[in-house]
């Protein structure tokens, strides 16, 4: 890939950056035999967007919308995204959060590419090899950029799965000037779903801090975590789901066949125990109405618009522990095997050298980016990482390019389905041990996904030697 222009170099030098050689570790240009090419063009620009209530918000957008266009593919497809920057002065890139793309497609400015400046473009290509729920976001001034709206969802469907009848909703949660929104909805999303219909809700946390979700009106299963299927997920109800920053949960259930005694028969998604995010109600016409001629049922089937509080208080519901959920199984590599490399990351806050001066920072082993030593691995290594949180805040730890297997949390191994994640929430005082196979050569970021913390130094590189 040629042509990083002189003008481009000059511009980056003016910004005090080194121009980065574009890595040769790029994605393929053709899909697999059974796949097709999914082409998208995303133009980053400042726009005023309207939330569902009509409220206007100034945002940084892809194609004038927040979230950006949903990227959808089937396993085996080639995803090709042309990113253009119209007017985002600080620059923009696309990072495929949770997707193990080739290093040169990973979208990290200063590491795998230069930031795309106004008037420039960059084309990303990678194979849709992982089915599941993911997301994309800018990685240049990522705290500000994501907060302002430069993100969207990426959903890859399994090639083998039959086309499902039913409801399949991708719901990125985000905070816009203090308001919690799902997609661009600042009011409950109203969706019709017939009794018995299968539903999949794909929850994506695009914020810096965890959100707590609860589902009322039906038992359900937590079918996937960070895009990875849970093995034999059991049915749960009346639990809270804490979704770490950057992570995704897929919830599945069928719409209730019978109306409950209160005449509801509806399912609600409650965010942070106080916001009604989504209301799924049976269609007004047809069998369900004929079967339920009561006034209460009719009222429930035609909800009045406008905000309404949750019907059930979910705040007292216990939190589901993903480490104790689903059926245990043998992971694809033996986590008890001796590790080829071991790293310990102690997370804290305090003074550290930043740009040659002491500054208040979020630190890893007492240092701040870019002074934290790079983790070096060799292809094929089994790598163990211990993350210790000595700080006062939760640190959702995120590794690019690899999924990690959770070995233990505070010394206790998981008792449920093997837990593969790209982001894990290390709360104050906690110690997590994870392992991964070094099978994706290149240069990678390893950072706190509270992006404000990453900006304050809590980030380092992982490099294959
Ligand atoms: Cu979603 Cu480096 O981040
Ligand atoms: Cu953090």
TrEMBL record:
Residues 46-159, 358-463 form the Plastocyanin-like domain. Residues 5-17 have a biased composition (Basic and acidic residues). Residues 292-316 have a biased composition (Low complexity). The keyword Transmembrane helix applies. It comes from the Bacteria. It is an enzyme of class 1 (oxidoreductase). Residues 2-33, 281-316 are annotated as: Disordered. Its cofactor is Cu(2+); Cu(+). It catalyses: nitric oxide + Fe(III)-[cytochrome c] + H2O = Fe(II)-[cytochrome c] + nitrite + 2 H(+). Its EC number is 1.7.2.1. Keywords: Copper, Membrane, Metal-binding, Oxidoreductase, Repeat, Transmembrane, Transmembrane helix. Belongs to the multicopper oxidase family. Homotrimer. This is Copper-containing nitrite reductase. It comes from Microtetraspora malaysiensis. The chain holds residues 189 to 653 of 665 of the full protein.
């Amino acid at each position: 890939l040629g042509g990083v222009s002189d003008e481009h170099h000059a511009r980056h030098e003016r910004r005090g950056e080194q121009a980065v050689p574009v890595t040769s570790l790029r994605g393929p240009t053709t899909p697999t035999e059974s796949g097709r090419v999914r082409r998208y063009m995303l133009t980053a620009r400042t726009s005023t967007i309207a939330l569902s209530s009509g409220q206007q918000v100034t945002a940084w957008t892809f194609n004038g919308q927040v979230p950006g266009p949903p990227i959808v593919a089937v396993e085996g497809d080639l995803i090709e995204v042309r990113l253009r920057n119209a007017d985002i002065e600080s620059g923009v890139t696309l990072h495929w959060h949770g997707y193990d793309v080739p290093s040169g497609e990973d979208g990290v400015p200063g590491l795998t590419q230069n930031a795309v400046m106004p008037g420039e473009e960059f084309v990303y290509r990678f194979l849709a090899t992982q089915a599941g729920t993911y997301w994309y976001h800018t990685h240049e001034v990522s705290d500000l950029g994501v907060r302002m709206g430069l993100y969207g969802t990426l959903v890859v469907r399994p090639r083998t799965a039959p086309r499902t009848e039913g409801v399949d909703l991708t719901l990125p949660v985000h905070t816009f000037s203090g308001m919690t929104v799902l997609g661009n909805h600042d009011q409950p999303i109203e969706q019709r779903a017939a009794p018995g219909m299968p539903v999949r809700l794909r929850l994506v946390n695009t914020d810096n801090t965890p959100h707590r979700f609860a589902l009322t009106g039906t038992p359900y299963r937590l079918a996937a975590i960070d895009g990875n299927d849970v093995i034999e997920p059991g049915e749960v109800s009346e639990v809270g789901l804490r979704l770490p920053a950057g992570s995704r949960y897929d919830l599945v259930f069928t719409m209730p066949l019978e109306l409950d005694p209160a005449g509801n028969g509806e399912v609600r998604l409650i965010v942070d125990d106080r916001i009604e995010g989504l209301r799924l109600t049976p269609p007004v016409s047809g069998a369900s109405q004929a079967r339920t001629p009561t006034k209460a049922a009719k009222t429930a089937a035609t909800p009045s618009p406008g905000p309404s509080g949750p019907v059930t208080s979910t705040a007292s519901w216990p939190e589901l522990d993903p480490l104790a959920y689903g059926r245990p199984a043998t992971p694809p590599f033996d986590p008890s095997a001796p590790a080829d490399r071991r790293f310990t990351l102690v997370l804290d806050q305090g003074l550290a050298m930043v740009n040659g001066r002491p500054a208040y920072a979020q630190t890893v082993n007492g240092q701040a980016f870019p002074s934290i030593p790079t983790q070096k691995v060799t292809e094929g290594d089994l790598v163990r990482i211990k993350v210790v949180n000595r700080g006062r805040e939760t640190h959702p730890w995120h590794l690019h390019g690899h999924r990690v297997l959770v070995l233990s949390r505070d010394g206790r191994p998981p008792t449920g389905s093997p837990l593969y994640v790209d982001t894990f929430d290390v709360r104050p005082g906690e110690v997590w041990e994870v392992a991964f196979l070094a099978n994706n050569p290149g240069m990678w970021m390893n950072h706190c996904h509270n992006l404000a913390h990453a900006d304050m130094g809590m980030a380092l590189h992982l490099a294959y030697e």
